[in-house]
Specification:
There is one protein chain. By secondary structure, this protein is mostly helical. It has a domain of 106 residues. Helices cover 53% and strands 6% of the residues. It has a three-stranded antiparallel beta sheet with strand order 1-2-3. Helix 2 packs antiparallel against helix 3, helix 2 crosses helix 4 and helix 2 packs parallel to helix 5. The protein is elongated, with a radius of gyration of 23 Å. It starts with 9 loop residues before the first helix and ends in a 7-residue tail after the last helix.
Length: 152
Amino acid sequence: MKKVTSNINPLTIKLIIVAVILYFISSISKSAKTIFSNTDDLDEDDKLDVNTSDLTISDNDSNVIANALYDAMVQAGTDEDLIYEQLSRLNSQSDFDKVFNRFGLRKYILQTGTNPIWNFYEKYNLIQMLRNELDDSEIQYIIETYPHLSIF
């Protein structure tokens, strides 16, 4: 019987196996991030146009503000002071528009105003959540205190 010999180097086989394993880990990681993420991007049609000449906040600032606003609304009870504090950081409508776009769509239970533990949720944008969390007098306060922001 003739012995079959392979020209494939054992190191090459090991590298291929490692590459396949890394590919599967990467795929699983991306899927898990999508499943467990609180944030989805808005559709392009739903994004607000941002006038960059009017911006006073950075990408990082908009992310921090969006996360703080979400935290203020998603807990049991609304932290109105934190909402006002974050809105005070916005010096133009473009700043708000950038935060709105960065906020995207976030997991939220409209009836209870809380962060979902299970899959009983929908995703809402920043304005929808603010309207749900704030009463008429708080919305009026925002309109009067931040007249440069057209939120409601």
